[in-house]
Each structure stands twice: as C-alpha cells, then as structure tokens.
Amino acid sequence: MFMFNFDKRNSIESEEENKKCDENQLNWLPARKIAIPSNFFQKNSNKIEFTYNYKVPSFELKLVDSEKVIIKLKEEKYENIIEAESQHSDLLPAKYEGGLKIWECTYDLANFIILENFCFEDTRVLDLGCGAGIIGLIALLRGATIHFQDYNAEVIESVTIPNVILNCKNDDFIKKKCEFYCGDWQSFTDIETSNDEKQKYDFIFTSETIYNPKNYLKLYKVFKEKLKTNGIGFVAGKTYYFGIGGGMRQFEELVLREGFFDIKIVWKSSEGLQREILKLERKL
C-alpha cells in the first residue's frame, strides 16, 4: 500500500516495487498512439454537435456536449462507460478515469495560463489527462505543438479529437501540430523514450489527476522522463480530495523527497474548496 509517512530509509525504488505489487490486481490499459483516420475530417467536421464555452476569457471555445457523448457511448456498448454510469461514478480505477467530465481545476489552470500570458510559440506541450483538451487547445491556438493524452481511447476519440477539429478547422494544421495518446501513464512514459531533448516537452500541464495516491509515482515519472532540462510542469488540483485520499501535499512530498525538482505553489483559490497550482522545475 502506498504510504506518505515516509521512513527515510525507504527509497523511491522500493516504494515503486510495492506499488507494482499492489497494482498487479488491476489491468491498466497499455498506452498507444491514436491516429486520426484520413476521412475523419471530411465526415465529421460539419456534423459535430457542440456548445460554446465561455469559462476561459479570450477563448470562445466550441466543445462537444459530453452528456450526449455518454449517451452515444452507452448505445454503442462501451462497457467501461456503462459500468461507470451504472455506479453513478466518475472514476473506476484502471477502467474509466473521468475524462468525459470537465473538472473545476482545468479552468483554474486555463485561466492561470491566460493571466500569466504564456508564450507557446515553437514549443512542445503535453496536455496530460487532457479530457476535453482545453489546456492543449489554448496552447495550440497560441503556437505550440500539442500531444493530448488521456486514459480512455473513447475519450480521445469522442471528445478530444472532435474538440480540436471544432476549434481548428484546418486539417493539415491539426495533422502537423497534434498527436493523440491513450492508456496508462507508466507505459506512456515508455513510449518512444528518447534522451533527445527535442523529443521531450517544454511544458507539461495536468489538472485533477492527483486524486489517487497509488498513481503518484507514474505521474511523477512522466514529468521526470518527458520534460526537457529547462522544461516546466504544472499540476492543478484540490488541496485535498475528500473521500478518496489524494491531495497536493501528498504529491508535493513525493516530489520533494527525491529532490529532482523544485516545486512551488503559484496559485491558490481564494474561496470555496481549496484548490492550487504547483509548478515543477528541474533543479540546477
């Protein structure tokens, strides 16, 4: 079991072995790249039902209606979605990880990016646990090359890719600037692993992905293995996830313990349930 009252004698590697043993009971979906079929744009670009989303200033985003997507996926017998809906749950470990819902901290991170006026021109960006792809869309529309990643392929295919098409009508632009991945973070880290800095990311953004402490090591390793030497990571989430057990301090403690990154709180909510954004930068 993953514990956070760390004994200094225990190593990150020992904890990882314990975590792997604990997770052997779960069959995590292997990571893979999702290619957009060549005829997808022509068939779908003018047929996607959407609503306008105004929760990010300066970006009038068109987003598919996730409720209609859920109905469609249930009709098409997607078992993971049917099971999640039958249990009235947004999360089923190793089966469905909540990508059809836009979580509160996604908007925190999006508005932070706008407020800080991030420059994305000629950068490589990973939107990790992307769901609707809002963070990636903002970076894409500001000049970045984007890799969108979410656990469930049906989320990427039914929500992320349609949202990209809705907001970027140029097919060649999307093919040139975007890649899409699904599956578990551990195997995603291993996909096309390269020491070439050009193949790594200038920015990695993730929001509402720290609810399950058992996944912290996998999440941490994405930052460690996939960020460029001078790359920056941002994690948006609730200070504490009541009823689940995860939280910012637990993830922060894991990161600080190995000493690979400096970590800093760069934003906090001023009202309501406490939410934060953490910034990770490699130590010099």
Characteristic terms for this protein:
10 strands, alpha/beta, single chain, 22% strand, two-stranded antiparallel ribbon, 284 residues, disordered N terminus
Could you please describe the fold and organization of this structure?
This protein is of the alpha/beta class and about 280 residues long. The chain contains eleven helices and ten strands. It has an eight-stranded mixed sheet with strand order 1-6-5-4-7-8-10-9, with helices on both faces. Strands 2-3 form a two-stranded antiparallel ribbon.
Overall 3D geometry? globular
Order of helices and strands: HEHEEHHHEHEHHEHEHEHEE
Physical arrangement of strands within the biggest beta sheet: 1-6-5-4-7-8-10-9
pLDDT < 50 stretches: 1-23
As a whole number of angstroms, the C-alpha radius of gyration is 18 Å
Label the structural class. alpha/beta
Number of strands: 10
Largest sheet: 8 strands, mixed
* Portion in strands: 15-25%
Give the secondary structure arrangement, pairings included.
Elements: H1 12-23, E1 32-34, H2 40-44, E2 50-53, E3 61-64, H3 66-75, H4 79-86, H5 104-115, E4 124-128, H6 134-141, E5 145-150, H7 153-167, H8 171-177, E6 178-182, H9 185-190, E7 201-207, H10 216-226, E8 227-238, H11 248-258, E9 261-268, E10 275-282
Parallel strand pairs: 4-5, 4-7, 5-6, 7-8
Antiparallel strand pairs: 1-6, 2-3, 8-10, 9-10
Structure in a nutshell:
The chain is an alpha/beta fold and about 280 residues long.
